[in-house]
Amino acid sequence: MVSAGLRNTYADFKLLQEIEATEVSGLMAAHARAQHTVTIADGTAFKVLLCLGVVPRGALRLLIGMGRPAEGPEVWEGEFDAALGSIEIER
Fold it and tell me: Is residue 31 part of a domain?
């Protein structure tokens, strides 16, 4: 559902891995990595890598994301996992 919405927003949106089950604040969630391009008003384009966490909340979905430039070292995955682990969602 979320990836379909992102595909509609970003023509080149692509999942880089299978969606994985995880937990956020003890709640079922999903985790994925993706990439897409952001183009600003002057036409400059930026390729972006994303780490996404999605937590179902009734009829809604809480989307948690962290992005970085597509080029560069892969040092942020641990930071995203730590950020997800630090989130507390009140029920």
Answer: yes
Tokens representing 64 are 């948690």
Rounded to whole angstroms, the Cα distance separating 70 from 64 reads 19
CA 73 to chain centre: 18
Give the structural domain span for 63: 2-86
DSSP strand pairing (20-24 vs 14-15): unpaired
Number of folded domains in the chain? 1
What predicted TM-score, i.e. pTM, was given to this entire model?
0.72
Buried b / exposed e along 28-59 (16+ C-beta atoms within 10 A):
ebbbbbbbbeeeeeeeeeeebbbbbbbbeeee
Does residue 68 fall inside a structural domain? yes
Average pLDDT estimate for 6-22: 83
Which of 81, 84, 80, 57 minimizes the C-alpha distance to 68? Answer: 80
Task: Answer whether residue 6 is part of any domain.
Answer: yes
Nearest Cα to Cα of residue 85 among 26, 17, 19: 26
